[in-house]
Amino acid sequence: KFLRLFLRIFSDKFISVERSTCGLFQCLLRLNTMPVSVVHGQGATTQDSHIEAARHALQYLKIMASEKGLQ
User: The pTM is what?
Assistant: First the structure.
């Protein structure tokens, strides 16, 4: 539920990319940030890759928010 809300606010769309050499599904998630940012996710299923990309987006936003606070 939280993930769905987060994606609605901060993300634009998932972009599927070719499977990795070890057979994992991969995707890119474009974020509605300025400047636009992109994070990667991979997993055993398409949904797993989306979940991992969303987690990476949260980590990225946390890092960016803490760096903005330092300036």
Answer: 0.81
**Which tokens hold the place of 66?**
């803490």
| CA-to-CA separations, 21 to 14, 46, 66, in angstroms, rounded | 20, 15, 35
* 30-60 tens-digit pLDDT: 988 888 899 999 999 999 999 999 899 989 9
d(CA 53, CA 43): 10
Query: Would you call 70 exposed, middle or buried from its count of C-beta atoms within 10 A (0-12, 13-18, 19+)?
Result: exposed
Q: At what angle do helices 46-70 and 2-10 cross, to 10 degrees?
A: 60
